[in-house]
Every structure is written in C-alpha cells, then in structure tokens.
UniProtKB/TrEMBL annotation:
This is Enoyl-CoA hydratase. Pfam families: ECH_1. It comes from Skermania pinensis. InterPro entries: ClpP/crotonase-like_dom_sf, Enoyl-CoA_hydra/iso.
C-alpha cells in the first residue's frame, strides 16, 4: 500500500508512504489517495484531515520512470487527456471541495505533481527545508494540470517560477500566502497536529460553512473556470511534445527526479 490512513482524536491522517521513490505518484498511489480522501470525508469521527508524507520529501511529483502520461496502451493525446482529467484534475478538485478542513504538512521537495496534492488542502504547514517547484516548462508545457499557480503565488511570482523552473523556499511561499506557517523540520508533525486539534474542537457545521464561503468566493472570482480552462491549454503541450518528439523528454525528467537525494 502506498497510502496509510489513520483516525485519532477526530483527526484523519493520510500518509504518502512511498519514501523510497520520494513519494512519486504512480496511478496506484493516486487511486489509493483518492479513496482515503473519500473515506475521511464520509467518516463521522473525522473533523479535520491531515495530509503528510513519509521520508525526506513530500513528493517528487508524477512518477515518469519507464512510463508515459498515457500509462499502458498507445500514447495518444486522447488517452493522455482521459487519464489526466481523472487523476490529476478531478481528484484534486474533489479533495479541494471536500466539506471538512484539511492541512498539508510539506517537507523537502514538492515538485510539479506534488503541488496537486498540497494545493487542494485548505492550509499548508511547511518545514523549513521545504521547496516548491514546477519545472515542466522544459517539456513545452505551461505548468502542471491543476494550475493553481496564479492563485497561490500571485501573477508575477507564478510567472517567475514557471519561466525559470527554480524552487520557491518555504519562507518565500509563506510571504506569498501559499504557506500558512513555516516550522522546524523536526517539529512538522507535532505542530501540524496541534493546529489540527485546534480546528477539530470547532463546531463541524461552522467549519463546513466557513470553508464553503471561502471556496465559493474564489469560484465567483473565476478559480474553478480558470482551472478547467488551463487544463485544456495544458493538453496542447502534450500534443506538441507528441508531434515533435514522442515524449523522450520524459526520460530526462525521470533522471532528474531520480537524482533527488
């Protein structure tokens, strides 16, 4: 199992448990993760959800080693679109709209697809060694599938990290508002659980209404429509990669991720 799910003191904890691969996301991991989110959403004993990860890194993003975005079968834009719409867009939106508060605890590297895991959470606590990046412009793609960059970082900072591929530090992310708190790496789990316990003590219906109010405000401003529209733009990058090279760039990106220590 790539995912662990535990409940204690009204806190549901979902743990990414593939540390030997820096918690890179294959299809099985994402399907198990979605199942855990749905279990937490339906569990009356859970008031708040914590998403955390085992090992040095939160997530190296999509597992590209020896695979393609289309997984098994022929690599076509139609197949890529189907797979990514379900696992990268629909899953992330479902986690974002779950009617219970959620907190992501992020340490080490959070690369590209890793953003699809923490951005849907209501709050993010980052260890002081956390780094957030999206280097997929090197693939000829304008950013990962759940394109929250502008909302999370602001337009100019979003452009900077996309244009350069450089990582954003935990403190830099806190200054933009993407991260709520930065804590010492050794205190990440403890401090996250303290915040979760504080939230879990609040009336559940009030929490749901507060979350709904904030999310709906963002949606009225265009968040949901923008996420859907940019996903389609993202697919044109895949189409270009297929027409030009048949995706050999995946091998280069996989090697880059394999070098994460």
């Amino acid at each position: 199992m790539f995912i662990r799910y535990q409940v204690a003191d009204r806190i549901g904890t979902i743990t990414l448990n593939r540390p030997e691969a820096a918690n890179a996301q294959n299809g099985e991991l994402l399907d198990q993760l979605d199942a855990a989110w749905q279990q937490a959403a339906a569990d009356p004993d859970v008031a708040v959800v914590v998403l955390r990860a085992e090992g040095k890194h939160f997530s190296a993003g999509h597992d590209l080693k020896g695979s393609s975005p289309a997984e098994s079968g022929p690599i076509t834009l139609e197949r890529i679109y189907q797979v990514e719409a379900r696992r990268y867009l629909e899953y992330s939106l479902r986690w974002r709209n779950m009617p219970k508060p959620s907190i992501a605890a992020v340490q080490g590297r959070c690369i590209a697809g890793g953003l699809l895991l923490c951005w849907p959470c209501d709050l993010i606590i980052a260890a002081d060694d956390a780094q957030f990046s999206d280097p997929v412009v090197m693939m000829g793609i304008g950013g990962v599938e759940y394109h929250g960059h502008t909302w999370e970082l602001g337009a100019r900072k979003a452009k900077e990290i996309l244009f350069t591929g450089r990582p954003v530090t935990a403190e830099e992310a806190r200054q933009t508002g993407m991260v709520n708190r930065v804590v010492a790496r050794a205190e990440l789990d403890e401090r996250t659980r303290e915040l979760a316990a504080q939230i879990a003590a609040m009336p559940p219906f009030g929490l749901r209404q507060a979350k709904r109010a904030v999310n709906q405000t963002l949606d009225v401003q265009g968040f949901y429509a923008a996420i859907q529209a940019v996903f389609d733009v993202h697919q044109t990058g895949h189409g270009n990669a297929l027409s030009v090279s048949g995706f050999p760039i995946l091998t280069q990106l996989a090697e880059m991720k394999n070098n994460i220590k």
